[in-house]
Specification:
Length: 122
């Protein structure tokens, strides 16, 4: 499991983000969701992070100058990182795969060399 911490830009604001290959989904806190397009889901889902989730959001952000757009679930609290800093976005494996983002834990950075210039669908 690879984990990288860094800020990403959401609607011009810097948000503390944990990129975690051990998490399948992407989550945002209500403070981030306030600037995103959200919708109430027909059914609530339980998460291992605690509680039920019934609001989804369209996360549009910028990661190292690269725009991304992905589905996120809104959760009251994600938790704190190893330094005690509150995590605002948990960026999961599905979104990393979608956008060609690869964590490089030994160097504590993200590799975006596989970021798609265009989508080719078959």
């Amino acid at each position: 499991m690879a984990r990288i911490r860094q800020t990403i830009k959401v609607d011009g604001q810097e948000c503390w983000t944990l990129f975690d290959t051990g998490a399948r989904n992407t989550y945002v806190t209500p403070s981030v969701a306030r600037v995103l397009q959200t919708s109430t889901m027909a059914h609530a889902f339980k998460t291992a992070l605690g509680g039920g989730v019934n609001i989804s959001a369209l996360l549009e952000a910028e990661i190292q100058g690269h725009p991304i757009s992905t589905h996120a679930l809104v959760i009251d609290e994600i938790g704190k990182d190893e330094d005690g800093k509150p995590i605002e976005i948990l960026f999961g494996a599905l979104a990393m795969q979608q956008w060609g983002i690869r964590p490089v834990p030994d160097e504590e950075r993200l590799d975006l060399t596989q970021y798609p210039d265009e989508f080719v669908e078959f």
